[in-house]
Amino acid sequence: MSGTDSEFDLIRRYFAEPAAAATAAEGLRLGIGDDAALLAVRPGYELVVAVDTLVEGTHFFPDHPPASLGHKALAANLSDLAAMGAEPLGALLSLVLPGVDHAWLKGFSQGFLALAGEAGVPLVGGDTNRGPLAISVTVLGEVPAGQALRRGGARPGDRLVVSGALGGAAAGLAHETHRRTRGEAPADSGNTACARLFWPPARLGVGRALRNRARAAIDISDGLLADLGHLCAASGCGARVEWPQVPLDPLLEGMAEPEARACALAGGEDYELLFALPSDEPLDLLAFSVDAPLTVIGEMTEGDEVTIVDARGARLEPGRAGHDHFAG
Amino acid sequence: MSGTDSEFDLIRRYFAEPAAAATAAEGLRLGIGDDAALLAVRPGYELVVAVDTLVEGTHFFPDHPPASLGHKALAANLSDLAAMGAEPLGALLSLVLPGVDHAWLKGFSQGFLALAGEAGVPLVGGDTNRGPLAISVTVLGEVPAGQALRRGGARPGDRLVVSGALGGAAAGLAHETHRRTRGEAPADSGNTACARLFWPPARLGVGRALRNRARAAIDISDGLLADLGHLCAASGCGARVEWPQVPLDPLLEGMAEPEARACALAGGEDYELLFALPSDEPLDLLAFSVDAPLTVIGEMTEGDEVTIVDARGARLEPGRAGHDHFAG
Q1: Using CA atoms, how far apart are residues A83 and A237, in angstroms rounded to an integer?
Q2: Considering the domain boundaries, does residue A322 fall inside one?
Q3: Which residue of A has its CA nearest to B216?
Q4: B59 lies in which domain range?
Q5: A72-118 pLDDT tens trace
Q6: Contact yes or no for A325 and B7 at CB 8 A
Q7: Interchain pair A38, B81: CB under 8 A
Q8: Distance from A102 to chain B by nearest Cα, in Å?
Q9: Is the entire prediction scored with pTM above 0.80?
Q10: Residue A154 domain flag
Q11: Eight-class DSSP state of B270
Q12: Is the ipTM reported for this complex over the cut 0.90?
């Protein structure tokens, strides 16, 4: 703890100056340093906004690599924008810090700002406060009026499609937990077994391509089955998932099938998009225009049940669905 | 801790349903329950956004009345919108909770939603997570393009004006601290000595009236002198404050002068507006159109110094300026 580092200095040193040095974003009118930020939303567009918070001990281990945390905190929020089909406009960061750890702040800000630069989302505001470590990010985006993707809207007969591959984040978490029980050193940010856990994607390009094509969409943050449950509930229908079609992360190779199934169906934090595509909407055209694989994993059904079936159509047990920090 | 209360249930039960029952806000297109919220910003307006976080132990005592906390968390953010001259569009709430305390949640949500209803700001999104108590609010607003009030822009010769009265929050905090050292029961939400500390205003009407009139504005969250310092630094000028003109909160009556001066000049959380008004802009017309007293307390000056003077023009010691959670 240095007595010379004020809240204002911290934001300026680690975030405002590097952010200002990056190319100015089109919609940004006034960034960090006033009572609030000013942004322009394009005429004919609606504003999209989401918030997500990561808490030490609940969402990550105390020794989680700081650059990965900066990346993840922003990626989780950009993933919500992607699930709405939105373009990012800006982000706000609220950091609660137990003290001033310059190495941690340097790593965290580099991870955060690297993804911000890549996704073209300026950091427009934020605050820092003293307390137990927690990271809250608010993202702002815009979407052509009336074209936002929602969770409701899927209909029986729609194909159920997922981007990328699933289970990698859960596999990484299992690896990390195992290491810790053996008393080994924590993984560094380059650990390949934790690649998906540490560096989740934000499928903004996929979300954009889904506008006017998908009937409903959600991002997979709580686990495929939990998030599919939300999509089904909002759409008033059920779904059938064909387990052999579910694209598995390479990190699941060599894993026993029940364990792989738990990772891919019930593991959280993969941040892929799950969406319902009308049966007459060509998938190959869509797949051609995005930078992630798209895989049909099942179909929306009548009723309100979500079932998982094997190659012969026999029902499989889902395993534990998603995670909920307040459930028993 | 109840095993049946999930994150989703908490938001729905305490926030989403009461919020939905309130009159629908004009700009709201999609509220709580999807990956993100959708809002419309009026054509010709810019988006205004700010975030502020309250942490237990740093910003409030563990036994702080929950209804006041709900009010304060939103008021502190609306105050930032007011300082920009903005109209509120919506708010997002991120709660980190050590467990599910229904009495606390009921009180907190009532305080939050009462102010939200009064100010016409719908709760459009949020999340809850488990961890040490922290409350992060993001507010969204809109302001006619080019008319936002900023901290920079004041010029030497401008009158320095403040809304309402100062020092009440600091007096309440002193009262609370004193009670605790005597081992007395914590103040309830109706405690008159803590009225300003517990129920700060959000001067949205004043901020709106200042558009195209004030040259610079800031809200007083860190203390008059600290926030005046920010305004001076952004404007590239200094200021002279005439101590006898500073409007004092009635809670300061009977206090020794040095103590009253410390509360009014260096105490934080009064959430009044401080602004620079050109000398040819009539104050009486402006005062007539707002619902809080406006008082000229000094003048912007050449240079970069902030001075406080007594009735004879002699310099006074400012006392300790503002609070900064990371300063020594």
Answers
A1: 19
A2: no
A3: A34
A4: 7-144
A5: 999 999 999 999 999 999 999 999 999 999 999 999 999 999 999 99
A6: yes
A7: no
A8: 13
A9: yes
A10: no
A11: -
A12: no
